[in-house]
Design brief:
Blueprint (H helix, E strand, L loop, with lengths): L1 H4 L5 E2 L6 H11 L19 H15 L1 E2 L2 H6 L3 H10 L2
Helix pairs in contact: 2-3
């Protein structure tokens, strides 16, 4: 488990990422929730583990990023996602 989580670092291929883009991407996966900067797995009804992975895949495809497994596990809110994206710029 530790080897998998620590296997690679996140990489940003597209450096101009803003919170509106992230919210739009999350909304495309969770259309029934009102997604804001404050949204997270804890307060969004449909943000479950499956949709979480769909969000991570959508972020990768639409923003041109590669996320490490540990960052995927930590990205459980819009704020956390932005923090990770800002870290990998």
């Amino acid at each position: 488990k530790k080897d998998y989580i620590n296997q690679s670092k996140s990489v940003a291929l597209n450096k101009n990422i803003n919170i509106k883009e992230v919210i739009t991407i999350v909304c495309s996966i969770l259309p029934d929730d009102d997604i804001t900067e404050e949204s997270s797995m804890e307060n969004s009804q449909s943000w479950d583990s499956l949709n979480h992975m769909l969000i991570m895949i959508a972020l990768k495809e639409k923003l041109g990023i590669e996320l490490a497994p540990s960052d995927i596990a930590d990205a459980i809110s819009i704020k956390d996602i932005m923090s990770i994206l800002n870290k990998i710029k």
